[in-house]
Structure formats: C-alpha cells, structure tokens
Design a protein that fits this description.
The structure is a single chain. With 263 residues, the protein is α+β, with helices and mostly antiparallel strands. The protein has 2 domains: 64 residues, 434 Repressor (Amino-terminal Domain) (Orthogonal Bundle); 158 residues, Umud Fragment, subunit A (Ribbon), CATH 2.10.109.10. The chain has a 6-stranded mixed barrel with strand order 2-4-5-10-6-7. Helix 4 runs antiparallel to helix 5.
Length: 263
Amino acid sequence: MRHVPAGPRISPKPDWAIKVLVLRERLHLNQTEFGQMFQCSAMAVSRWERGVQQPPSRSYIEIGNIAGDPGCWYFWERAGFRREQIMSMLPEMRRALRQTHAHAFEFVRRKSGKGKSSQNERFVAIPLRKIVAATHGGKKCDDISHLHDARIESTIVAPKSWCPNPSSMSCLRVQGRSMAPTIHDGYILAVDSSEIDKRKLDGKIVIARNKESGLSVSRFRRYDQTEVLQSDSPEYAAVTLGRKNEWKILATVLWWIGNTPPK
C-alpha cells in the first residue's frame, strides 16, 4: 500500500476571529471601513479575522458597542470585564437618570432633557483610561498624543443616547479647580475624540494637549481670528492658541460624573 504523506494540519480559527468576521459581514462593511470605526488598518482587521492576532482590549470594547445586545457581552468579556460587573452598574445609571434632583451625586448631560430612561434603553461600555487631565494653573498631568493609546483602567456603562460616537469615546479623570463651578477636581469626563473641528467648538469644553503642559481641560473660545482656551473660574488667565505654544485639540467633553463638593 502506497503511503501518502499527510498535508499540513490547518488549525481551526478561534471563536473570537469568527465572531469579528460575522459582525463585519452583518454590517456590510469591507475591512477598511470596519477598521476605520476602531482607528485601525484593514491589515489589522485581516489579522483579527484570520485568528493571527487578537484585537486589543480597547477594540474589543468598541466592537461590543457596535455589536449591540446580545453580542456585546462576548466582546466586552474578551476585554476582561465580567458580565456581572457591567450589569451591576446599570441600576446605578438608571437611578442617576431618574434622580436628577439628587444632592450627593451629579450626572450631567450635554443635551437637555428630563432624564428619563426605560428598561429597553441600550447601553454602551466606555473605557475609563488611566490618564489624568489638568485644569489651567494646575500641575502638569499626563501627556499622550492619542487618548485611545492610553491603558484601560475600568469601564463606564452609559445609555447609548448619551454616546453619539461610541467607538471614539473615552473617559478620563480631571485634576484641578480652574473649571469650577462647572467641573470639579476628581470628576470623570466622557470625551469624544471625533469632535475636534474648531469651527464647531466655540463655547465647548475640550481636552487639549501641549508638550510642556500635557493634557488640559478648558473651554474653547473663538474671537474673530483669535482662538483661546479659557477657565470657567475668573482667577485663571486664558491661553491664546498659536504656532508658538502648539496646542492641539484631542477631544470634546460630552458629559461628566462626580460627587457634588461640600458647600
């Protein structure tokens, strides 16, 4: 009997690779379009789908946001979060929505509304980055060119209606008091890195970066051809933007979470 050598053994694709491929095809996107949703290349998506390389934790969270219920749970768990951790946060979020008059806790939305929620409202997981942004006049905090490159400390669950662009959102902590009484020291900010067009930012609170100062939280203002970063507290001087100081807008602040400071 003639011996026929066995061909190379083909390893089956891991489950996560198949699920990424199925999701992309369900969305009717090519690899380039799919990758753009997570700020990565088509080559990276190809490696995910072939099972060569897993998506990083931040991408797993963002993929879960796009997948929606029930597929989101698989991807969030791949990012290292247990289902019970996320589920335990949902009642707190609903209470925050209902109890807008609470004195011990503030949950501020960018858009006005009565703050009502329903059992059917969708939620998304936003990564809480291990970075701190300073207000004007404070000590230099973290310095990073892209917020998505920062390590993930935890996750914040929020209603999808609060998150216009889930894949470009992050949360970070703030340090300093120059944005009081709007934002206080220790607050957690939810920011959108896709909203950085200066023509649309006048009056909005932004995260800006400078090599000397690091990350900063301030209010962007435009006066004719002059652009400045202002504090909400009159005790701190504004910073005029120009070529010399090389400030760059990284994200727009959408809403924030924090304990109401004692009076």
